[in-house]
Amino acid sequence: xxxxxxxxxxxxxxxxxxxxxxxxxxxxxxxxxxxxxxxxxxxxxxxxxxxxxxxxxxxxxxxxxxxxxxxxxxxxxxxxxxxxxxxxxxxxxxxxxxxxxxxxxxxxxxxxxxxxxxxxxxxxxxxxxxxxxxxxxxxxxxxxxxxxxxxxxxxxxxxxxxxxxxxxxxxxxxxxxxxxxxxxxxxxxxxxxxxxxxxxxxxxxxxxxxxxxxxxxxxxxxxxxxxxxxxxxxxxxxxxxxxxxxxxxxxxxxxxxxxxxxxxxxxxxxxxxxxxxxxxxxxxxxxxxxxxxxxxxxxxxxxxxxxxxxxxxxxxxxxxxxxxxxxxxxx
Length: 331
Known about the structure:
The protein is an alpha/beta fold.
């Protein structure tokens, strides 16, 4: 196998922890894994300076006008679950209660009538269920927009905070993460956006990823709404559980939710200060350097007659076995 034929060990720096895909590559190519929470560093870089944004107002000065907000740009391939989620919201008549961005045609993968079939073929989602979701989406006036209403496609704003004014008017931010179907610990910059905005959030991603975020010291909101969805390993049941949480939230009045939001101020401020602290960034850096040092120390001893770097890069045959589609996060 490719890495096993190399004259030097290969350390794979990865943003995933406890991942089926990572295990596949480690076992198949004999890589030495080194975990790094990369998006902590990315988010710190991208979102610095937002404390000076006058559109971000104090929690105790906010008045809830919408009960949730959720951004859904890419909706094909592995992100097809976002179409299922919007369909579940439509089924529960919740869309009118929130700010929702969603396009019937994904800018990279096409119309939902085609992309939703991927959930059936790739993830084994029941075809009848997918047909029901298509019917729900067919009833909507597309596209759904929060901002950029003049654009045919939602722009990629990973590196900025979008629709800040609308976020200030919303009770809860529903994060629709990049990864959803797999068994893995993996979060992106999306998880940190509501923290910078001092908003409560629901995390729609892989199972146990809310627990993963909490392991870095963040507090969540089980005092105010059900967070048991995080422990549901079945992807569709987890998605439906999140929709049910939103249904419960939407059953409350704006006045009730405004009071509840003000009650959360201590937790929201704690999370904001934690993210922006030097200690948090240092912890992530120390974790990376510690894991890298462990990976180096666990590498096998180099052969006495090690090949020069140029030889190493060309030794062995390139892997010919295709990586299983189920282990590939398709953009």
